[in-house]
Amino acid sequence: MSLELYRNGSIYSPADPFATAMLVENGTVAWIGTEAAAGALLDSRMTEIDLQGALVTPAFVDSHVHLASLGAKLNGLDLSGVRSADELLAAVAADEGTGLLLGAGWDESGFASGTVPGPEELQRAVGDREVYLARADVHSALVSPKLADRLGLVEGPEYSGALVRGRAHERVRAAVFAFEEATSARNRNSALAHLASTGHGAVVEMAAEHVSGRADLEALLGRSDQEKAATPEVFAYWAELVDSEQQARDLLASFDSTAVVGLGGDLNIDGSIGSRTALLRADYADAPGDRGTAYLDAQRIGAHIAACSLAGIQTSFHVIGDAGLDLALEGFDRAAEKVGLAKVQAGRHRLEHVEMVDDAARERMLGFALTASMQPGFDAAWSGTGGMYEQRLGATRADAMNGIGQFLSTGVPVVIGSDAPVTPVSPWSAVKACLELRDPAARISARAAFMAHTRSGFRALGSPSPFAGQLVNGAEATFAIWDAAELSVQTPDLRVSSWSTDARAGTPMLPVLEDELPQCLRTVRAGTVLFDDMGQA
Questions:
Q1: Hey, what's the signal peptide range on this chain (predicted)?
Q2: Which domain holds residue 86?
Q3: Distances in Å between the alpha carbon of 445 and those of 229, 375, 415?
Q4: Which pLDDT score, from 0 to 100, does residue 497 have?
């Protein structure tokens, strides 16, 4: 039996908003209360952990990650800091490795010239090495001529200069990420360790053949019980289209793992705004005549939704542009006509990203009982005057992106993720971004954002536990401990507050997110320490 008494801190719990102590027994929260009560409760059976004023919260759930890609970025060349084509070339030339050079994170919308290196420049910088450098959104990449030749790339709409995008990029990426298992394992382990160190107790892996392949997902699922217990819990979606109920059942069963919770995720209806592959109703502001790319049509979308709904299996689609969302909703219409609205609603389906949504589309999403899986980090990175959104879309469309507040006001559930490696794994940055979204109507309180990044993530997965994502008696002891300078109840604006900010209302307090963000001191999953920087037993 294990008993750990955490005391002398602040416990974020709806059971007691003023709690300072928590008892964990065999991986379960056994008690939450005050410091005085903790002193009376303490006995020789318990390990006492002095929080020294730290904050304890439920651990975060990242509702949209790509572990292989995140690990490859952590172990490869990070180009998120380069600010010009010359800096990019210098970073590539300075890499001292051998063989294929993998890099990620560049974004030419922040370059003064707005241009990227050409193929000859790229090859000169690395000699005879092959190079794959993913754009920040991972929907296009720069590739060296040597790699392009090996993979048979042909100049055309999807491959020009050194830039490859669209379906051609998916084929290149699938080939590049066909790692040996030792490399894949290193990338997975690096990603999961990084997520644990940032306070995550669970992650939702969006797997697909074009992302890192089925073998990578099966290796992730096939880890030993001991290995799994030492990392954040992994849930997974597999993006493969089906067109019948039996095919859906057979595909899900083929994984032989309850961790695979749905067939979808990175089922791409369109691409990304930065790569100009998100499907738009009107032209890109900086590319007249271009409205992006449709990777699926309404018939195929509807058939997949109908099959999954009949099988009782959740699905999800990647959709970013407003015209892409039109296609998605037409697919849901078709599925409802085929199998009935009630079956579709019971599927608890979701849409990933949904950055460009009007009121009519939100109402339709509500009617289908959909969940919006969103990334406020996108808004933090790309909104604002002169930002990527404005460059690609113009100010009017750019200022109406990522309507998290409107979704919640409409009644559409929202869950939050990073889409790592697209944006950094930084959950408090995501909460802060929700307070500061470009569109004032989209902003939500810190508490609402925190719930979307914790408890709501489990709900969207259909967790059978009513306590998942909370710290209450009887809940699994999955939590993170934070060094936070100051706590308060924060709202983006007094007019949009959904909870009282008066301490007498008993609203649990969260870190003030104005200057330094909280630092993770320890992450615990079901009583097992995943990450520790406290220096205590």
A1: none
A2: 77-165
A3: 33, 16, 14
A4: 43
